[in-house]
Amino acid sequence: MFQQLISHNDDIRQLVERGYAVALDGNHYLVVRDIPYLDNTLKLNTGAIVMKFVDVGQGRIKQDDHQIFFAGSIPHSLDGKPIPNLGGGATTFALSEASKDVIIQRSFSNKPKTTGKFKDFFEKLESYVSIISGPAMERYEVNPFTFRAVLDSKTSTPFKFRDTLTSRAEIGDLASKFKDDVIAVIGVGGTGSYVLDFLVKTPVREIRAFDLDQFFIHNTFRAPGKLDEAELGKSKAEVFQTRYENFRYGLTVTKKFIDSTCSEDLKGVTFAFVCVDKGASRSKIFDLLISLAIPFIDVG
Q1: Which domain holds residue 267?
Q2: Is residue 82 included in any domain, yes or no?
Q3: Are residues 274 and 200 both part of a single domain?
């Protein structure tokens, strides 16, 4: 993935050729390690700059804004005072496991005076490095050009294309809490179909949905998405499997009625949504889930 970015983005290639220790954190951030700076005692420290990016397709990315995140304490000038005109403030959020050594502590905001925005990632990083690292580079004759190769993140994802929403909302730490979950949706009617629609856009490892019924015209008024007349008369399982299989991996929608005999179908499930309207059927499903120690919500 990182090599693809280098080949499709001249500014990322320039950063690497300049010697910056650039890495990719999942699908959301560029991480530049080995950034020298001075603390309040003028001691030499090393931090990291993190920049959010936006996927524009065909292997190309662009800046999200002019700001950066910084892993480190407040950078100081040679006079021992905090470097002025950096804006931002204290903030924190977790990166992926591949970047667990980078602990974000604050954000910085410094726009170019003439244009008000940076041309690309190269110009942006060079500007911030000159501000943050300038005093350390002068005092200790160091620089951030370590040419260090940081292993590309191999963070797995269930999605078939890059998830740019998580980075924009800065909820990567929250999303990661669900990455190992296996969710069951029992019934994909007027409620279950919407539950499924939301779930497929979350980074849970696996989703198993179950429904025995067919898909008719009245179902289109109770389900998300557009109507394709070719869907009418097919099983709901086939309809919803087809609708979402181009979005993510780990989705199976099975034409089946869940009852007390279906413990094998729910093996490994960590949470369930029961979206069934018949009380008698729900009761049997509840008993099964309780016997399997699977937490659930009844939304039938």
Answers
A1: 180-298
A2: yes
A3: yes
DSSP 3-state of 31: strand
What would you measure as the largest C-alpha separation in the chain, in angstroms?
77
Residue 27's pLDDT is what?
62
**What is each CA distance from 132 to 32, 47, 76, 78, 165, in whole angstroms?**
13, 10, 8, 11, 29
Q: Do residues 143 and 213 both lie within one domain?
A: no
Helical residues (DSSP H) of 44-180, grouped into ranges = 121-132, 134-140, 165-169, 172-175
The C-alpha atoms of residue 283 and residue 235 are separated, in whole angstroms, by: 24
Phi, psi of 272 (to 5 degrees): -135, 145
Does pLDDT of 169 surpass 90? no
Query: How far is it, in rounded angstroms, from Cα 283 to Cα 192?
Result: 17
Residues 187 and 133 in one domain: no
0.90 cut: is pTM over it?
no
**Overall residue count recorded for the chain in this entry:** 300
CA 269 to chain centre: 23
Residue 165 lies in a domain: no
Question: Under a CB-based contact definition with an 8 Å cutoff, are residues 66 and 172 in contact?
Answer: no
How many domains does the chain fold into?
2
Looking at the structure, tell me whether residues 73 and 216 fall in a common domain: no
Residue 176 has pLDDT above 60, yes or no: yes
